[in-house]
TrEMBL record:
Residues 66-75 have a biased composition (Gly residues). One of its GO terms (cellular component) is cytoplasm. Keywords: Transferase, Ubl conjugation pathway. Residues 1-62 form the U-box domain. ARM repeats lie at residues 138-188. Residues 66-87 are annotated as: Disordered. InterPro entries: ARM-like, ARM-type_fold, ARM_PUB, Armadillo, RING-Ubox_PUB, Ubox_domain, Znf_RING/FYVE/PHD. It is an enzyme of class 2 (transferase). Pathway: Protein modification; protein ubiquitination. This is RING-type E3 ubiquitin transferase.
Length: 403
């Protein structure tokens, strides 16, 4: 395997072999049998390629050139996006990136490691070619080693700063979809969730929040949602941050959970990790604040929207039905039509949650009626365009409570 590449399914293949498979008309991943549809991108597996090259050098084995899938016989090989130019400035940038990656080695002074990671974070944010340079230079593996504690600097006073820059560097590398798949293949999930683990007490509140944001970015690729969700530390770590993190950390944890819970299996995992209790406590404690600041997923404020998603699974509804005291809070948010701080999406989520938990449950239906949910939902439906989704959900709740 001279040139390992990754399909979006997360499986690694030799470039020439998988290209022949695709060129012959196959439209599935050979191992998982998943349909590839129109997404047949071949993403370089830099970590595995580096291991293969190191082994070959140590054993005096000459590797055949992968050539990026280009034909041989004197034809020009395709070049990566960062090598398309032989300009001295491009070579200088590559050499600078390689020097920064070498600067992360554990034997170096902590201040050099800190400065190198910080510069890589900045470079990763600036452009796609620079992100590719960092990946090709083996930067991802070095950053992951830092987060997993394999490359501890000699001065622990700088550890928080180093970890924060390393997490944000990985987050910046996630700007490209192919990197989202490649990072997971290299083990980024283990490293990032290590920051959120119960045993990693040293991580700063900002580093934990950035780790949650990195999980959100990785989860934008569907196959990664499943991989992250299956990790034993994912849901507990995010729920812990949602429960006891800083305001920013709670928001970023809610965003990450919302993204992961687009996958039904992850909803059940989140419920098992105790997320429903944390969400309902937030709603009960301050319904107006929750609606104004934690309800719109487009703005990264996803608490009520997350409740809405979790109410679609039986396990989520069962947990919600244990907390009858949350009904008045949901009704208050749903009725906040005159409060400009409460977005319509928040009111819609409350109507959807109430509808879900009242269905086929006479006790909750009676509690919702006593809390005035039918009247509030009726006013909401009448005050909105009847064709909008929020109005339809409110009208459905009125119909349910009036039966």
């Amino acid at each position: 395997m001279a040139e390992p590449v990754i399909l979006w399914t997360g499986q690694t293949y030799d470039r020439q072999s998988i290209q022949r498979w695709l060129d012959s008309g196959h439209t599935t991943c050979p191992k998982t049998k998943q349909e590839l549809h129109d997404d047949t991108r071949l993403i370089p597996n830099y970590a595995l390629r580096s291991l293969i090259q190191s082994w070959a050098a140590a054993n005096s084995v000459e590797l055949a050139s992968g050539g990026g899938g280009a034909s041989g016989g004197g034809s020009k090989s395709k070049k990566s996006s960062i090598c398309s130019s032989d300009s001295s400035s491009n070579r200088a940038r590559k050499e600078a990136v390689e020097a920064l990656v070498r600067g992360i080695l554990a034997a170096n002074p902590a201040s050099l490691i800190r400065d190198s990671v910080r510069e890589l974070r900045i470079l990763a944010k600036e452009s796609r070619p620079q992100r590719a340079m960092i990946c090709e230079a083996g930067g991802v593996a070095k950053l992951l080693d830092l987060l997993l504690g394999k490359s501890r600097p000699a001065f622990p006073d700088l550890q928080n700063e180093i970890e924060e820059n390393a997490v944000v560097a990985l987050l910046n590398l996630c700007a490209d979809d192919e990197n989202k798949v490649g990072l997971v293949a290299e083990g980024a999930v283990d490293a990032i969730l290590h920051i959120l683990s119960r045993h990693h007490h040293q991580a700063s509140i900002d580093t934990r929040a950035s780790a949650a944001l990195a999980i959100t970015s990785l989860a934008m690729v569907d196959v990664n949602k499943a991989i992250i969700g299956r990790h034993p530390g994912a849901m507990p770590g995010l729920v812990r941050l949602l429960s006891s993190g800083s305001p920013r950390g709670k928001k970023d944890a809610a965003i990450a959970l919302y993204s992961l819970c687009m996958l039904p299996d992850n909803r059940r995992r989140a419920v098992a990790a105790g997320v429903v209790s944390v969400l309902l406590t937030a709603v009960e404690n301050d319904a107006r604040y929750c609606a104004a600041h934690l309800a719109a997923p487009a703005e990264g404020e996803a608490v009520l929207a997350l409740l809405d998603v979790l109410a679609t699974c039986p396990e989520g509804r069962a947990e919600m039905r244990l907390r009858r005291g949350v009904v008045p809070a949901l009704v208050r948010v749903m009725g906040a039509a005159g409060d400009s701080a409460v977005p319509l999406r928040a009111r819609e989520s409350c109507a959807a949650v109430l509808y879900a938990v009242c269905c086929e449950d006479a006790t909750w239906t009676a509690i919702a009626r006593d809390a005035g949910a039918a009247a509030v939902a009726g006013e909401m439906a009448r005050g909105l365009n009847g064709e909008c989704r929020a109005a339809r959900k409110a009208a459905s709740l009125v119909q349910l409570l009036s039966a």
